[in-house]
Amino acid sequence: MASLEYKELKQGLPKPPQQLIDFIHEVFGDEVPRFIREEWEEEAQKRGMEKGMEKGMEKGMEIGRKQEKEMIDRTFTLKTIQKFRDWSDAEVADFVGVTVEYVQRLRSELAENK
Fold first, then answer.
1. Which structural domain, as residue segments, surrounds residue 59?
2. Is the pTM value of this prediction over 0.70?
């Protein structure tokens, strides 16, 4: 783990009680024992993974919402085109809330599929 990542993750960890710090210094001096350092690093990695998973889930949900909106826009636009065949692309786009180019693309897809 990079030193900077370790320092950032370490900042998020609760500070151990002063008595524990004094005890460790009394027993081991200024050198933090390897098993304690490894445990701290493990905890920092665990928190980093949890943070990464959380961000990944948020990003996945955001992508899912975007795809759902695109699907709803597409369905609504197609149904509007089919229901109001005499409406212009601009009228459909204004009614649905999409671009004229999007309506034109869907109209051409409909024409190709017939």
1. 3-113
2. no
